[in-house]
C-alpha cells in the first residue's frame, strides 16, 4: 500500500509535515553546526572527514525539505523553507541547540544524534509514504558510515584516560537533559502510525534507541542519558547559541531577499 | 571551547608525537582493474586510517575498493646498485638483441635483397 501526498487525510498530512520538518531541521542544524569545524579540526584528515559528514547532513536536509515542500504544497521551495523562517520557527531537537563546543562535545552530541536518527530512519523502512520510504533508505546508507566514524571517536575518547575521557564525560553531562529530544513523541504521530507511515510512536523509538546504545555505554562505562522530562518542549524554545547560528546561516540569503542563487 | 587550531597542525609537524603515522592508500577504480597507489593519510590507527582513506579517495565514487597499509609495513627497495646496475644489461631486457644492423650486414655480404613485406 502506498500513499502519495495528495491522497492523505488532513490529520495525516499535518503529522507527516511535522515529521519531515523535524527531520529536515535536525539535519540542517547539525550539518551547519558541525561544518564550523572546517579548517580547525584537530588534524587535516579529520577536518576533511567532519566537513564531508556535515555536507552529507546538509544534503539530507535539502532532500527532506524538498519532500516537505511537496507535502505542504504552499508554493515555498526547499530553500525558502530552510532559510526564510525566524529562529523560533525552527523545529529541531533541543539536543542540537547546544553549540558545537570542544571536540569531545561535538562527538558526544553527534553520537547521541546519529544513533537516534538511525532508529528514526529504520522506523521508516516500510513506510506507506513511498517518497519518504525511498529517501530514508538512501539516507540510511550514508548514515551507516557516519555512525562508524562517530563510534570510533566515542570509543577512543572514552577509553583514553585523563583529558579525553574527562572532556567526554563533561560533554555527556551538559547534553544529558536534552539527549533524548530527537525521538520525543511528535504531535500527530498517532495518525502516522495508523497510516503506516511510521512503524511505531516516539516512546517505542526511544526504547529502541536505549537498547541500541545501552551495550556501548555499559562497555565504555558512560552514564546513560536520563528519560526526557519535558517531551512537549523537546523542539521549541531554542537557545541563544542557536539564534547566533541562525543569524549566521541565513546571513547570505538575507543579503538579497528573493534573489536567484 | 576549541576555536583555534592546534599549534602543531602543520604538515607532519608533531605527527609522531600525537601518535599519528602515515598509511598508504591503494585504490581500484573499477572491478577487475589493478590496485593503484592513490596517496597517503595520517592516522592514529587502522580504523581511522580506513575512514580517512574513504573520505579522501572514495567519497566521490572514484573507487570500488581501497587497501590501506601501514607505511611501516611496506618493505622499501630503492638502492640504485640493486635496481640500476652501472654496466650495460640491455641483453636482459625482453626486447633482446637489436638485429637490424646485423641483418643488413649479412644481406650485403650475400647479395640478397631485403624481402618485401608480405602482402596481406
Shape call of chain A = globular
User: Count the helices of chain A. How many?
Assistant: 10
Structural class of chain A: mainly alpha
Succession of helices and strands of chain A = HHHHHHHHHH
How would you characterize the largest beta sheet of chain A?
A: none
Shape of chain B: elongated
Q: Would you give the CATH topology of chain A?
A: Ferritin
End-to-end separation of chain B in angstroms reads 79 Å
Share of residues in strands of chain B: 15-25%
Low-confidence stretches of chain B: 5-13
Overall pLDDT confidence of chain A: 94
Distance separating the two termini of chain A: 39 Å
Structural commentary:
The complex is a heterodimer of chains A (261) and B (120). The longest helix of chain A has 30 residues, at 130-159. Chain A has ten helices and no strands. In chain A, helix 1 packs antiparallel against helix 2. In chain A, 62% of the residues lie in helices and 0% in strands. Chain A has one domain (7-224, 231-255): Ferritin (Up-down Bundle), CATH 1.20.1260. With 261 residues, chain A is an all-alpha fold. Chain B has a domain at 17-74: Ubiquitin-like (UB roll) (Roll). In chain B, 22% of the residues lie in helices and 18% in strands. Chain B is elongated. Classes of the chains: A mainly alpha (261), B alpha+beta (120). Chain A binds chain B through residues 39-40, 42-46, 48-49, 52, 99, 101-103, 145, 148-149, 152, 156, and chain B through 1-6, 9, 18, 20, 41-44, 47-48, 51-52, 54-56, 59.
Amino acid at each position: 500500500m502506498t500513499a502519495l501526498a495528495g491522497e492523505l487525510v488532513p490529520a495525516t498530512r499535518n503529522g507527516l509535515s511535522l515529521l519531515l520538518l523535524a527531520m529536515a531541521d535536525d539535519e540542517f542544524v547539525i550539518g551547519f553546526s558541525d561544518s564550523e569545524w572546517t579548517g580547525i579540526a584537530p588534524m587535516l584528515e579529520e577536518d576533511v572527514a567532519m566537513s564531508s559528514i556535515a555536507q552529507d547532513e546538509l544534503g539530507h536536509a535539502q532532500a527532506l525539505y524538498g519532500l516537505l515542500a511537496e507535502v505542504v504544497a504552499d508554493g515555498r521551495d526547499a530553500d525558502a523553507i530552510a532559510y526564510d523562517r525566524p529562529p523560533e520557527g525552527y523545529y529541531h531537537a533541543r539536543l542540537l541547540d547546544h553549540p558545537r563546543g570542544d571536540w569531545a562535545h561535538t562527538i558526544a552530541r553527534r553520537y547521541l544524534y546519529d544513533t537516534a536518527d538511525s532508529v528514526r530512519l529504520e522506523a521508516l523502512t516500510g513506510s506507506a509514504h513511498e517518497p519518504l520510504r525511498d529517501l530514508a533508505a538512501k539516507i540510511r546508507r550514508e548514515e551507516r558510515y557516519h555512525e562508524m566514524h562517530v563510534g570510533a571517536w566515542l570509543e577512543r575518547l572514552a577509553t583514553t584516560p585523563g583529558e579525553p575521557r574527562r572532556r567526554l564525560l563533561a560533554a555527556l553531562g551538559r547534553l544529558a537533559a536534552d539527549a533524548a529530544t530527537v525521538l520525543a513523541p511528535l504531535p500527530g504521530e498517532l495518525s502516522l502510525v495508523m497510516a503506516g507511515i511510521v512503524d511505531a510512536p516516539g516512546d517505542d523509538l526511544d526504547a529502541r534507541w536505549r537498547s541500541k546504545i545501552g551495550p556501548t555505554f555499559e562497555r565504555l562505562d558512560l552514564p546513560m542519558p536520563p528519560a526526557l522530562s519535558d517531551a512537549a518542549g523537546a523542539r521549541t524554545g531554542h537557545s541563544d547559541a542557536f539564534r547566533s547560528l541562525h543569524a549566521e546561516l541565513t546571513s547570505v540569503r538575507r543579503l538579497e531577499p528573493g534573489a536567484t542563487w | 571551547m576549541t576555536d583555534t587550531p592546534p599549534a602543531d597542525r602543520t604538515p607532519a609537524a608533531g605527527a609522531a608525537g600525537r601518535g599519528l603515522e602515515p598509511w598508504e592508500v591503494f585504490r581500484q577504480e573499477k572491478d577487475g582493474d589493478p590496485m593503484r597507489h592513490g596517496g597517503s593519510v595520517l592516522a592514529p590507527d587502522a580504523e581511522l586510517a580506513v575512514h580517512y582513506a574513504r573520505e579522501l579517495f572514495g567519497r566521490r565514487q572514484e573507487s570500488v575498493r581501497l587497501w590501506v597499509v601501514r607505511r611501516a609495513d611496506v618493505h622499501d627497495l630503492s638502492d640504485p646498485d640493486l635496481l640500476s646496475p652501472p654496466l650495460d644489461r640491455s641483453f636482459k631486457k625482453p626486447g633482446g638483441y637489436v638485429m637490424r644492423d646485423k641483418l643488413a650486414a649479412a644481406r650485403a655480404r650475400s647479395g640478397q635483397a631485403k624481402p618485401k613485406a608480405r602482402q596481406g
